[in-house]
Every structure is written in C-alpha cells, then in structure tokens.
Amino acid sequence: LGAAHAEALQNDAASWRFQATPYVWMTGLSGNLQVSPHIPTAHFSQSFSEVFDNLNVAAFLNGTARKGRYVLHADASYASVSDTAGLPLGLQAQAKLRQSSVTLSAGYNWQLSPSDSLDVMAGIRWWNLRASVQVAPLLQAQTQQNFVDPIVALRWHHQINPQWSSLLYTDVGGFSVGSRLTWQALAVLNYQVKDNFYLSAGYRQLNVDRRSHGQRLDFSLSGPILGATLRF
C-alpha cells in the first residue's frame, strides 16, 4: 500500500490537473465616470436588480491548472451596462460602460496542513474599458482605454469535510502602472456533487481606480456569486 501511494503521488505530481468554472455574478455597481476634462464627473450607483434591468450582456469564466506544487490561474469577464446618471445643475447624463478583463497569474502552492493549502501568485490583469456619456442637448463624449495592471494574489483553500470546503481569494495591483489601484476579494463555500463536479456560492468585490489625461473611471462591483466547477 505504501509503494502504491508513493507511486500515485509521483504520477499526480507529473501530470496536469485542470478545472473550469463558469459563474454568475449578481453584482451591484457604483462609481464615478469622467470621459473628458470638459465634462462634469458622473456619479452612478446601482443595485443588482437595477444592473440587471440595464444589463446588455455579461459572461464570466474562471480556470485553474496545476502540476505538482505549481499553479496557473485565469479569469475572464465581459459586461455591458447603461444608465442615466445625475450631474450638477440638474442635468442628466446617459452613460454606458462596457468592460472586458482577463486576469492571468502563476505561482506556488504550500500545503499548510492536511486540510489547508495556500496559493501565492503574481500576474497581470488586462482591461478594456469603453465608456460614453451624452448630456443632452449639450454634448457627447466617449473614450476607450486599454491598460494592464500587475497584481499579486493569495488563495487559501480549507477542506471542512469530504464534501464541503471553503475558498478565500484576494489580489491587489495597479500600483499606478495601469490603474492607480485595483483590488478584489472573494469568499466561497463549495459542495462536491460528484468526484469531478462542484457547486459554489459566495461573495465577490472588485474595485478599480483609473485616472489618465483628465479622464476618470473608478468603480466598484460587488455581490453574490454562484458557480459550477468541472475538474479533469
């Protein structure tokens, strides 16, 4: 039995293991948008129900690859929302925001105990942000920004029992390379339905603060998250 167990560990360390998680993020949205120095800053705040009413399209996918103690992580998202935001002097602005982001990171896993493990990772988050504001009947402006933020990340996994586990994830970045600051935090509870299939529920928050050439875009996304994970 000991020899078989040692051989299984060696085979596991030599092979790649993958998991893919499509998920739904029931997020609220708040922040500030200024697409030109000549246009006042638009302030916006929406609950998830309001975001859902104004949502054009959204898609979210997370993936992980492991080989031995080494880990690769990826997360991709796309969303498009529109809303009417209030301005000074009683003016109204029609604002539309479309965002695409891809996070890629790599790192190392430490087994802290039989039920706890920690991933320490570093990587980048690419952003494509397209925003437009129309202040009728005065003016209209739009902007598109592409930038890359360096990030560092920690992910802690705790096995509660054979079927239940928890996951805590956080990253921080920007450092005035792309945005001034970006950070996010995620906490989820996982349930193993089958050997290679899991369901997850939790809460996620993501913040971005970007200012460049008189343009300002800082926003916060936060809300419950539901996911389904397939391991192979």
Write a structural description.
Helix content is 9%, strand content 74%. The chain has 232 residues and is mainly β. Strands 1-4-5-6-7-8-9-10-11-12 form a ten-stranded antiparallel β-barrel. The longest helix has 13 residues, at 2-14.
Name the average pLDDT: 86
What's the helical proportion of residues? Answer: under 10%
Label the structural class: mainly beta
Provide the β-strand percentage band.
over 45%
Number of strands: 12
Main β-sheet description? 10 strands, antiparallel, barrel
User: What Rg is obtained from the alpha carbons, in whole angstroms?
Assistant: 21 Å
Shape: elongated
Alpha-carbon distance between the termini? 25 Å
Q: Walk across the major sheet and give the strand order.
A: 1-4-5-6-7-8-9-10-11-12
Question: Helix tally?
Answer: 2
Unreliable parts: 1-10
Order of helices and strands: HEEEHEEEEEEEEE
Map the helices and strands:
Blueprint: H1 2-14, E1 16-25, E2 28-34, E3 42-46, H2 48-54, E4 55-67, E5 70-86, E6 92-113, E7 116-135, E8 139-159, E9 164-173, E10 181-194, E11 197-212, E12 215-231
Task: Describe what is shown at a glance.
This protein is mainly beta and 232 residues long. The protein has two helices and twelve strands. The chain has helices at 2-14, 48-54; strands spanning 16-25, 28-34, 42-46, 55-67, 70-86, 92-113, 116-135, 139-159, 164-173, 181-194, 197-212, 215-231.
